[in-house]
Design goal:
five-stranded mixed beta sheet, Aspartate Aminotransferase, domain 2, 17 helices, globular, 14% strand, binds pyridoxal-5'-phosphate, 39% helix, Aspartate Aminotransferase, domain 1
């Protein structure tokens, strides 16, 4: 079944983690729609609760359907283990809960998904976890932000929405010098386009809600442990390096080695914070992942065709898409995601705010909504929706100026996608 290097990416996307169901022979992974699992006997229960044996107790912590999804994502990213969560934001919460104590800091790229900016600026601050912002186009700004309280660095490989490609290797060097893990949100690229662990990342996080699930029908998040970070030093990450009273004084990094971070996020984070994914959503996302390589290539090829067509349109002032040869991120795209630049792009309309409203009002094939990573083509005019509460200067700083339209290009026929934009632009002054 496998080539000399082990199974290829497309084979892993279909098979990793799965086997015919041992109880029934079912070929598709069954939806284990159960909250809890019967123990063999009292000793078995004791060994599960004490982390001496792997097995299922309760779906908040593990579930067999979810376990197949976790193994598949770990395989696709090239990590040692993964933990699924109810959403991308839940996965981020589990990561920082495992790494930070009140009073600690982390450095984050300024160019992030808007929801992450809110989560870091507001909810995380109320936990005493202080974000320090840095500029992904200026690596020195990351270096300058490091203090003795810094516990992690957080970036996106391909940033939402502007098509910003981050120089992962350069920031990984900063993280290494600071002795902190580099966390990479790989949602927009997916492991099909970009593999952050090969460039020095320590932890990968996903919103599986987007391209991994891929069909716009289920929320999910994932954490992937790269297995290379040394958690043992000087009590900097106490959840991993100090004895756990509830597990008989076990030290997680000693017992679990290169997947200790994933274990901690599960047996401390999921256990106590509780944002578990439902088995039904795990099943839907797992099914979506089977076609990830096909979909991501099609998304990228369609987006490239759309970006080139928009670049030549007389009502379009600019197009931001890293796949375009003249784009400022094109060289980084060629290095980190050579198979394609993904589905998401922004473009500016010469007609400004009113033209943006007109285009989103006149599209027919595109859906006007606030999401990305669906099979369907999606469109939004941030200035009149997600960013409408901001002042104009703030909108522009966030890449959501009055003229900006964002697309998540779907997997329909490229000619139909372009024809829809063509007729909407024709109706726009
Ligand atoms: C959507 C998204 C998130 C948040 O994920 P949810 O599943 O919506 O909680 C985080 N990062 C990026 C890049 C996203 O696009």
């Amino acid at each position: 079944m496998t080539g000399e290097q082990g199974p290829g990416f497309s084979t892993l996307a279909v098979h990793a983690g799965a086997q015919p169901d041992p109880a029934t022979g079912a070929r598709a992974t069954p939806i284990y729609q159960t909250t809890s699992f019967v123990f063999d006997d009292v000793d078995h229960a004791a060994s599960l609760f004490g982390l001496q044996a792997f097995g299922n107790i309760y779906t908040r912590i593990t579930n067999p359907t979810t376990a197949v999804l976790e193994e598949r994502i770990a395989a696709l990213e090239g990590g040692t283990a993964a933990v699924a969560a109810a959403s991308g934001h839940a996965a981020q919460l589990l990561i920082f809960h495992t790494l930070l104590k009140p009073g600690d800091e982390f450095i984050a790229s300024r160019k992030l998904y808007g929801g992450s900016i809110n989560q870091f600026n507001h909810s995380f601050k109320s936990f005493g976890w202080d974000v320090v912002w840095a500029d992904p186009d200026d690596i020195a700004s990351f270096e300058a932000a490091v203090t003795p309280r810094t516990k992690a660095i957080f970036i996106e490989s391909l940033a939402n929405p502007g098509g910003v490609v981050t120089d992962i290797e350069a920031i990984a060097k900063v993280a290494k010098r600071a002795g902190v893990p580099l966390i990479v949100d790989n949602t927009l690229a997916t492991p099909y386009l970009c593999r952050p662990f090969e460039h020095g990342a320590d932890i990968v996080v996903h919103s599986m809600t987007k391209f991994l699930g891929g069909h716009g029908n289920s929320m999910g998040g994932a954490i992937v442990d790269g297995g290379n970070f040394d958690w043992s030093r000087e009590g900097r990450y106490p959840m991993l390096s100090e004895p756990r009273p509830e597990y008989g004084g076990m030290v997680l990094h000693e017992t679990f080695g290169n997947f200790a971070f994933a274990i901690a996020a599960r047996v401390l984070g999921l256990r106590d914070l509780g944002p578990a994914i439902s088995p039904m959503n795990a099943f839907l996302i797992l099914t979506g992942i089977e076609t990830l390589p096909l979909r991501m290539q099609r998304h990228s090829d369609n987006a490239m065709a759309v970006a080139e067509w928009l670049s030549g349109h007389d009502k379009v002032a600019w197009v931001s898409y890293a796949g375009l040869a003249g784009d400022r991120y094109h060289q980084l795209q060629q290095k980190y995601m050579p198979k394609g630049a993904g589905a998401v792009m922004t473009f500016g309309l010469k007609g400004g705010y009113d033209a943006g409203v007109s285009v989103v009002s006149n599209v027919e094939l595109f859906s006007h909504l606030a999401n990305i990573g669906d099979t369907r083509s999606l469109i939004i005019h941030p200035a009149s929706t997600t960013h409408r509460q901001l002042a104009d200067a703030q909108k522009i700083a966030a890449g959501a100026g009055p003229d900006v339209v964002r697309l998540s290009v779907g997997i329909e026929d490229a000619e139909d996608i372009i024809a829809d934009l063509d007729q909407a632009l024709a109706k726009t002054a």
